[in-house]
Design goal:
By secondary structure, the protein is an alpha+beta fold. The chain has helices at residues 67-73, 125-130, 135-142, 175-183, 189-195, 203-215, 222-226, and strands at residues 3-4, 8-10, 14-16, 21-23, 28-30, 34-37, 40-41, 59-63, 91-93, 106-109, 112-119, 147-153, 155-157, 162-167. Strands 1-14-10-11-12-8-9 form a 7-stranded mixed β-sheet. Strand 10 and strand 11 form a beta hairpin. Helix 5 (189-195) runs antiparallel to helix 6.
Length: 232
């Protein structure tokens, strides 16, 4: 499952869509070598520091493998799926998807050590970018979400460095299972209770699992997915 890094992507906040809200989702390739800090790629910025970025979402990885499927499902947006980074990813690869990656996986690339911290929770800004009112819901339902890394060791990545898996502490928790549990099998409380104790999982997702077990109800996703009551 190793992958060669040919480029990384970064962006700055700009207004998007008809609502004119700011986002740094529109990223572009940046020149190597790339300096990776605890909070991610040095050139990358976020418009909403409360919900994006930070040490648990330092780098976003989205599989290019999904692009052709999206183009087939949404032919009106096919031009958007010709090349990365349509999803605002920092890292794009082939041959690695949510089925292959587990919570807590540790990977090495160049001088940098990364750890898979959580999947992506898609938000309404994807609807704006793609001009499709339910696109965020489609991403969540499909499980084609991508994932985030925390940075365990900072340093530089150079063009041609290999992204290589070196340790898997949670082999029973591929991101495909995690997505299925959080977004489809939402009342599997025994699994959720265990998930809330997985140290490698981002703290926010462990707390989400614990709340769902305690409250015996699924959180309301409408603000995140549809933009209702959003002031971002």
């Amino acid at each position: 499952m190793d992958a060669i890094i040919t480029t990384l992507y970064a962006g700055r906040p700009d207004p998007i869509g008809t609502r004119g809200k700011f986002s740094a989702i529109n990223k572009s390739s940046v020149s190597p070598p790339w300096r990776i800090a605890r909070t991610g790629l040095a050139q990358d910025e976020q418009a909403d520091a409360r919900n994006h970025g930070g040490v648990e979402k330092a780098l976003h990885h989205y599989p290019f493998d999904h692009y052709s499927t999206w183009a087939t499902e949404l032919p009106g947006c096919a031009n958007r799926f010709r090349e990365a980074p349509a999803f605002g990813e920092n890292i794009s690869t082939r041959g690695i998807t949510e089925v292959d990656v587990c919570v807590g996986d540790i990977l090495q690339v160049g001088q940098v050590t990364l750890q898979v911290s959580q999947g992506r929770q898609p938000c309404w800004k994807l609807n704006e970018v793609f001009g499709t009112k339910d696109f965020a819901r489609r991403v969540q339902s499909s499980g084609r979400t991508g994932w985030y890394y925390r940075v365990l060791e900072t340093g530089r990545i150079r063009q041609g460095d290999v992204l290589r898996f070196i340790h898997r502490p949670q082999p029973d928790w591929p991101l495909s299972r995690l997505n299925e549990l959080l977004f489809h099998r939402t009342d599997c409380y025994d699994e959720l209770e265990f998930l809330s104790t997985v140290a490698e999982l981002a703290d926010g997702w462990r707390r989400l699992a614990a709340r769902r077990v305690a409250n015996r109800r699924v959180e309301d996703w409408s603000a995140r997915l549809d933009g209702r009551m959003q002031d971002e």
